[in-house]
Amino acid sequence: MRFRFLLLLLVLLADAAAQEVKLEVKPLAPDVWLHTSWQTTATWGLVPSNGLIVREADHIVVIDTAWGAAPSRALLAWIDRELKLPVTRLIVTHFHDDRLGGWEVFAERGVRIVTSEQTLALAKVEPTPAFDLYQLAPGEKLARGTLEILYPGPAHAPDNVVVWLPAHQILAGGCAVRSAVSGGLGNLSDASVADWAASIARVQAAYPAARLVLPGHGDPGGPELLEHTKALATAALHPKSN
């Protein structure tokens, strides 16, 4: 009887743990998938977080971890099961947990983690051989495989970068880009509101051919998301008086 009780308890605990990992993967374009994970926050409630899975020939590149270690394990399990290709690189767009929080799960698999020195410093993570580190000035770009990383300057965070997929004309904007339904800039704890609009203008100048733009949170859209984000930043910097 006791054995049955313990077995039932283990099953219930396993079910509860599985339910806590909320992950969705869906196709966005040929060889590109959107991965979305959720976390409950004290300020915003249940929040979705976006990243990308990109097939490059015989391997996979992931842009941003899922939101935490357990969702990142679930993400890698999905790739193993559905795509059956090795993940060789993880590109991180800034230092917050919704972008970097599962990096150790990727490192355990031997994945090269492409991120800036500034990102690791802000996250207080010691560099290891797993990291492919770089430094960029505002407006500078860096190629990694078929993808391109642009540092537009501070916005949502001091280190935020965007990633360009030229073959698909897709821009992964991370949290520097807001969704169409966003009425404000969201979490400003590490933001530079004074620089945000100028940083987005650099993104617009660099990628005028962007067809699809992925915000860090919320639904993908077109290049209008960049203009929307720039308008939100300008409004936040110069609020109208009543």
Automatic annotation (TrEMBL):
Residues 1-16 form the signal peptide. It comes from Lacunisphaera limnophila. Its EC number is 3.5.2.6. This is beta-lactamase. Belongs to the metallo-beta-lactamase superfamily. Class-B beta-lactamase family. Keywords: Antibiotic resistance, Hydrolase, Metal-binding, Periplasm, Signal, Zinc. Its cofactor is Zn(2+). It catalyses: a beta-lactam + H2O = a substituted beta-amino acid. Coiled coil: none annotated. Monomer. One of its GO terms (biological process) is response to antibiotic. GO terms for molecular function: beta-lactamase activity; zinc ion binding. NCBIfam families: bla_subclass_B1. The keyword Transmembrane helix does not apply. Pfam families: Lactamase_B. Residues 48-217 form the Metallo-beta-lactamase domain. PANTHER family: ACYL-COENZYME A THIOESTERASE MBLAC2, METALLO-BETA-LACTAMASE DOMAIN-CONTAINING. It is an enzyme of class 3 (hydrolase). One of its GO terms (cellular component) is periplasmic space. InterPro entries: Beta-lactamase_class-B_CS, BlaB//VIM/IMP-1, Metallo-B-lactamas, NDM-1-like, RibonucZ/Hydroxyglut_hydro. It comes from the Bacteria.
